[in-house]
Design brief:
alpha/beta; 11-stranded mixed beta sheet; 10-stranded mixed beta sheet; SUF_FeS_clus_asmbl_SufD; SufBD_N; FeS cluster assembly protein SufB
Amino acid sequence: MELTSTLSRDLVLQVSSTLNEPDWLRAKRLLAWETFTKLPYPTPRTEEWKYTDITEVPFEELALELPVGQSLTREALPAEVKLRLEQAQLSGFAVFVGADLVYAELPEELSKQGVVLTSLHEALRTHPEQVEANLFKAVNWNDLVGAQASRRENSKIPALNAALFTHGVFLYIPKNVEFSKPIGVFKYLEGQVSGVAGRGSDALGKLSSSRTLIVGDVNSQGVYIEEYISPAKVPASVNTSSTELILAQGAKLRHAHIQTLGEGFYHFHRQRAHLDRDAALNDLVVDMGGSIVRAEVQSEMLGAGSYSEMLGLYFTSGTQHVDHYTLQHHVADHAYSDVLYKGAAKDGSRTVYAGLIKLEPGAQKTDAYQTNRNLLLSPEARSDSVPQLEIAANDVKCSHGSSTAPVDPMELFYLMSRGLPQHVGQQILVKAHLTDVLTRIPIEPLREHIEHIIEEKVRL
């Protein structure tokens, strides 16, 4: 079927029909589309976006990337993905090229225990009740429809994702099942592919839109790593992604979202976790690629005794612009959350961090902490940091802080005076700056991979 050539309600219907979706999902897509059409794109006049200008991002000029039904052997996977598979030491993995799940492996011992790793649309067929009960549950539907959405301009892009996502991941970890060796998902975005809808031209790339849904049942435990990879340079392209983490009572999840997309990609990511009683999330966000990046990472402590650790690493260069927003939303009592986001900027790049600790009246005995630290490697680089507190409970411990500072020239001079080239000295200083985040990553192959990315970016 040839799809309509512009973003429209007809395109939403045609995508849903092409993917053979159930009526309930088609209806939710249409509600999200209505929200998208009613809301303006965020601008620097939008409070949550005051440091990030996306007016030049060509959302509606791009072709929508669609599945084309391709599958690949492990040997035929993109070279960048194969290299990561050799390094990552995973228990199971799945690979997307464009909007297609082209290859997947899951150990028999996990599948026998009921662990499910598949595409979101395959899960609609094999686990329809789980998907219907949880899809859009964490990336809150109230953000996308109804009166609340009309007051929240920053829901424009998540609404676009909900209306037009074409692929995604579903991971289910059953009750009492545990695994400590990571499952990995690699999303390889080429920027220019076949199987698209839109006005695409040689000067423009594609609009890619995906979702991830992870459900951890009672007392389950797992580790999940998701990586976005592309060629080093692509035509102007947009990637929107949403991740929903649903953790039942006592469930524990270690989660990582890593993007090293090439120059030309605009990456917009919203992630939200629902944590039930005594559930625990250890989250890591790493943003090293892309031209403009906006990542919103949120934890909802809905059950007493829930725990959220949110770590972030970013390193920008050239003209990159990376914007992070975190939310620690405490609803229940006796919960704990800790945010530590650290980054470095060089050349004329810019980083932005805004974080909010929000405590509801019932969130007594809360422990919540928020820290942001930034290192500037050139006079032209810039970092903005806005930590915030909103506390409606009176028996809590909360703190927040931020700092931004240039590289100490005397420290760099000392290292160079001992015979180290300037870029090696900067590598040492950047890694030292980021070390308290790196040392909190217990997955050694992942930590080594991030350190290698940092070394390459300093050298450029």
